[in-house]
Protein: Potassium channel domain-containing protein
Amino acid sequence: MGVFFLNFLRALKGPTKNLVLRTTLFLVYLLFGAAVFQTIESGAEHREIHHFDKVQQRMKEKYNISDEEMHIFFTEISKAIDDGYFDVAYDRWSFAGSLFFTGTVVTTIGYGKMAPNTVWGRIFCIFYAIFGIPITGLMLKSIGERITEATANFWKLIDTKIFNREPRKIYLKTVACIFLMVTGMILLLAGIGKSYEGWTFFEGVYFAFITLSTIGFGDYVPQHPANSEKDHPGYVIAFTVLTFVYFTFGLAVVSSALLAISRLFEDEPPWGFISLMGGDDGEDDEQDNLLAEKKKAQIKDKMAGSGAP
Structure:
């Protein structure tokens, strides 16, 4: 089977070969991840199901609740938990809460703890996201480009002014520097989460990565550090704005890291990576261009031989 697949790849041209190879890698990666998560998480899920079944049975026996009433009760509790009503002690759709929600929409983080429940709110969310996501993407790209260029220029200055040599491995240094920035932001966010949200440091690291990668599961969501919005309205708004600004800058740094990596592979592609990321496309394009030029030259020679102008 493996030999057949290799022969099949050799028979394909560059772009088609890259498509098949990348798709195969994607599918294999999906299957690998599914197998690992099933192995790690399935046992815990079964234990939780068994635990909640016992809790449900004890409540039915203690309070003489029917199965139908218990099902309705658990359904309502589950909906309230999913919607995040037990996580906060403030009006979630105040201006501060709405601002935080719009930030999760346009950045595609989408924690899921807060979502519009009305028809008009959902309709507006669709159109708001259609225009807001591209606008945010352009902004993050611009900020990321500035961060990448500033970091690259810094290393060029170091090489030319301090070491008196031609700049070398600029984008490799840029990638390393930006990854240190991302790591620093993740650790800082983890520390803030540990101090203000009551999480463990690892939970803070996990939350920071899930947020800055825009995965946004919603199992950990920052809450406003106030017991009542009426008591601390300015503090709540300031917390919301600062959180959104931090997330936006963090996403811009991640964007700059991805940009630096792409430039690294264009400037200094590692061995064996060209065929995977499309390096063969350039060779195929060059061959196609040479063939096109050759055909044009042949046509010109025929036209010159026939006396055509």
Remarks:
- The chain has two domains: 1-87, 88-270.
- The radius of gyration is 28 Å.
- Residues 88-270 form a domain with the Helix Hairpins fold (CATH 1.10.287.70).
- Residues 271-283 have pLDDT under 50 and may be disordered.
